[in-house]
């Protein structure tokens, strides 16, 4: 990473501790990404963004704030970015995916909380992530119990606004979510000092829809028998989607897709023929959590789709852009977001349908359902996922893991055995 | 052609050589066990020395390595996971489709086997309870070796007075055992309780899956009739002990060397 120490100091970061993180990142990027063979050239943008993760985009956000802009930090795919951008703010994902931050979280959280929550709290409290410093306000949501309660702790250190997410999907729940989105709009107006107009909301709904379409295009390319891009690379792109400038991101993804179109036309694959195709399902993989993709793809299989919040749950379904009033647009947003099938809901049979459909569309040879340790919702739901996939005769492997490397060898054994089983 | 299977486990390494002529498994197996020691690299090198006659023979040889230390066998033609090897080896030992319960030194596996191939598996590798490690730790605590531990446990069981160990975690279970020792409980009864707790833990893992009609025990404890009978009780299905069960992985590896290379 280039030298951003001045900026980090200005942001009140613990620069010395942060240096330890900067020291290991290049090696990790080299091992996980650059060592892959035959990568698309247009990955260079995403490689650059990740290599400069704590520099380039934070510098943009810093400048934006110096010009009076407000940054909103979010933790869940359910929080509608459209509203924040329509109010003239910028939204950035804050979920943390490294063990580096876990001990910091453990200082205030019990040990049996999922690593994503621990790392997110740790990243804030130890002042070692610029994004967590740059957000003027965090937008939380009532999803799982761990996050809900952790937000109370974060709220003592940073302004926190909570959206009350329904836990069921009846029509009245969609209406309720529309009400919550409206409240977020009021809050966003208050924070930024800008009024959200119909035109602005329409424009930003369109902008985020374009981003979704680009990701849909990217994923669709992976349905080909020819695999034009590795799962590990796509995971990186999905992670970057949460914090990059949306318009630039869309453009870069489309440029990459142009190259991938050519690859598919010319039969250029990143993996040997006959490599097994894996659908990954489960909990989000926040940056820089590349652990399972790396294990799977260095064990002779390819990840062809992710049914996760760093995957299809992020971009499937577009928002209807036709509304002419704020209320209509907000309702359209609520309808789209309530189609995300997260295990925090009950019942959540839509997720089983999703996995079934994705397994078919992406011609998966097997499913690996991965959940973070201590994530009760996804862990319990695994029971149904496994039962239903086995009913279909789809080979299935469950993995529970965290951010440490301590289980890498065992995980490798399981994944390799699973792949041997598919052959 | 000699077919060689090398299984580098966490505590013991097993080697199996299939000579060129076909024959019955009992006749053709030349199996050997060595302690794995602190480094699987060193173990794999010393195995190589022992295997020189086969590796360098004019007949030629094909080697498959498996087990936790499989990567360190740099002279292997192929590495295959212990799941696939235990499936193949277990199938050979059982002589039919079967479920394999493998209680290893550091993990416990459950494998459903059809036609020599794993069709499903589960692994408990996060926690020492329900593995050979647990028994080893407890035997140390009681100041006996593993064989004595099983003999004592059988006695305690026959006396009908096992002390049940309620902690699921090895570390806590150890303190629990220390407490009972302090209270003056009999060694036999403690040993019986300890083996019982392993059986229970293994059964809990296995119960998440359907059993095949024939169930066998493999791994270092596979010849224990006592453990097999406790497991049979917990699972309501006959679990067959296997005298050569500890070689299931190495045998499977050797057979796969023959069939796949
Ligand atoms: S898994 Fe559920 S709670 Fe987590 S980000 Fe996704 S939608 Fe939100
Ligand atoms: S992974 Fe599970 S426990 Fe962790 S934040 Fe998401 S829903 Fe909550």
Features:
A: 423 residues; alpha/beta; 4-stranded parallel beta sheet; 8 strands; 54% helix; 10% strand; B: Nucleotidyltransferase, domain 5; 5-stranded mixed beta sheet; 10 strands; globular; binds iron/sulfur cluster
Can you walk me through this structure?
- The complex is a heterodimer of chains A (423) and B (261).
- Chain A has a 4-stranded parallel beta sheet, with helices on both faces. Chain A has a 4-stranded parallel beta sheet with strand order 6-5-7-8, sandwiched between helices.
- The radius of gyration of chain A is 21 Å and the shape is globular.
- Chain A contains 19 helices and 8 strands.
- The relative contact order of chain A is 0.12.
- The mean pLDDT of chain A is 97.
- With 423 residues, chain A is of the alpha/beta class.
- By secondary structure, chain B is an alpha/beta fold.
- Chain B folds into 2 domains: 2-96 and 244-260, 2-Layer Sandwich (Nucleotidyltransferase, domain 5), CATH 3.30.420.40; 123-240, ATPase, nucleotide binding domain (Nucleotidyltransferase, domain 5).
- Chain B contains 9 helices and 10 strands.
- Chain B has helices at 25-28, 40-55, 82-94, 132-142, 146-158, 170-182, 187-206, 225-235, 248-260; strands at 2-8, 12-18, 30-35, 61-66, 78-79, 98-103, 108-114, 117-124, 215-218, 239-240.
- In chain B, helix 8 links the parallel strand 9 (215-218) and strand 10.
- The longest helix of chain B is centred in the last third of the chain and has 20 residues, at 187-206.
- The termini of chain B are close together.
- At the A-B interface, helix 19 of A face helix 3 and strand 8 of B.
- One iron/sulfur cluster is lined by residues 114, 116-117, 143-144, 146-147, 283, 344, 372, 375, 377-378 of chain A.
- The site of one iron/sulfur cluster has 13 residues of chain A, from helix 7, helix 9 and helix 18.
